[in-house]
């Protein structure tokens, strides 16, 4: 098994299948769709999945450690909405940011604490904290679904930042992907995440600080969500908390899982997130160019994803280990 | 003697009549009948969500008026979730304090039809606001979306001008909401009369600003010479405007949208050139229409579901050139007013 190393090309796994589908789609679109294979459009594809990809990086960290963070989208939207609301009502920038950062860290730590020390399943903990964050911020701290960025604020200016005509969120996505890659591959705690995700009890027995590491991952995921939210607000000059009700959360899990990060933990890495994000980005862009209505877009997206999972199931049948361990 | 008595009696009767006459005038039966019909009646608003400008504006104007005539005004907040809205309506019908008038902002053509029928059967008048549905409500108050689409298309054609590329892009909402479907029909009606104008793309935003930005970015890359884009709601048109800004096409693409005429959402953005034209709903007048039909229904004595009235709000495409200080209403001011109480 080559869980965290280079791809094993002799054996086609889900990541390989999805990568192949993405390449095929890309080739077909480049040949068949005028205007697809232009620098501008390629940048637009990467940009359209940047925020999704950033959130998926945070999710990947948690999933590899055999967890899941269903509060990511709520933290992303509500923290930034609260931040902008504080700014709009006259709180100084530094203080507002300090409040929000503290709030985000508190929720991340709470998630981690409840999962690690209270032994509550991650899926319930994060579902509950996500609802709590949304409900509390929406009802107590902000007055509107949509909160605008104050004129001339750095968040607004951030949205206009370009290097070589490439929007800033692409660089942030690339930078974060690289950081997470370094963390997972070259730091001790990063390597430990795989052990903890693969077999938490054994990891603990050999002296790995499994519980503090769990708390760290949820805190990281929360901070990554805040970054994604700030980038969304930077681009749109406002944040709309309606996004919490959208399918974004499922899309995040999808990007991670379709790329080959198993929900049972211990497997995958940054490359899987990139492959998953690439497939979704190319697919959505091509369908928009062809002008396919949204209903059919969802149908096609679902069919391709289902296809990839079925093919994976046939090529890589369930083995003894997965049968014992189970998926989510 | 007898004659004198008769005369006196006649004089007294005359005097009584003469003095009583003004008190007849003060006894206008109107206010009493009005109070009898309206006092203590319950009005409930179930919008798509309470967190956006339209719903907050309606609630403000309705509450003011309903409480003034001695009624109770309540809102429910389904927060964009169709099921939650259905639950709120079901609970309202079944509760001891069943509302006498239910104002429903339907998420699509069919979801609440059965519930609205139930409400009417229980004796509650049902008003549909803003979004039409496949249901004969006691009254519909809101936009004629077809007409609204026509106004948008006319504004887009005017914004493009005769010497333009005559290419128009649409950012639709979705394929289920009546406001999106009828808006599209209206736009196409006008464009049929202008065959030189063509729609080059018509993606959906699903009412989401990020999606609107992504599809508009793609649209502008495929057709950089688009002269106008119609986005179906000001709630997500911020995304389309971000795409236009990113493509450095500000001032070249005339962005048309529609909204509730809130200051920060519409007038400020017309003023700074983000939007070229906005077909705005006169929210105060729309709320006034609702208040009037509520008062009529409660006094009519007719059972719920008897009559079906359509009250379309006057719509107008507003551009920067015809902005006036009172073109928009100010949500912040309403909130401050409510907070001051």
From TrEMBL, chain A:
TM segments?
16-39, 51-84, 96-116, 123-143, 163-184, 214-236, 248-266, 273-290
Has the keyword Lyase been applied to this entry? no
Q: What is its main location?
A: membrane
- What InterPro entries does UniProt report for this protein, alphabetically? ABC_transp_permease (IPR001851)
Entry membrane topology: Multi-pass membrane protein
Task: Tell me where it resides.
Answer: Cell membrane
Q: Which GO terms describe its molecular function?
A: transmembrane transporter activity
Mind telling me what this protein is named?
A: ABC transporter permease
Q: Which UniProt keywords apply?
A: Cell inner membrane, Cell membrane, Membrane, Transmembrane, Transmembrane helix, Transport
Name of a matching Pfam family? BPD_transp_2
What is one term from the GO cellular component aspect held by the record?
plasma membrane
TrEMBL record, chain B:
Any one annotated GO CC term? cell envelope
| Keyword match Disulfide bond | no
UniProt subcellular location: Cell envelope
UniProt keyword list: Signal
Q: Which Pfam families match?
A: Peripla_BP_4
Signal peptide bounds = 1-25
Which CDD domains did the record assign?
PBP1_ABC_sugar_binding-like
> Looking at the keywords, is Signal present?
yes
| Gene Ontology MF, one | carbohydrate binding
Q: Major location, coarse class?
A: other
Concerning InterPro entries, the annotation shows:
Peripla_BP_I, SBP_2_dom
Q: Which residues form the Periplasmic binding protein domain?
A: 57-299
Q: Which family does it belong to?
A: Belongs to the bacterial solute-binding protein 2 family.
Record protein name field: Sugar ABC transporter substrate-binding protein
* Naturally occurring in which organism (per UniProt): Mesorhizobium atlanticum
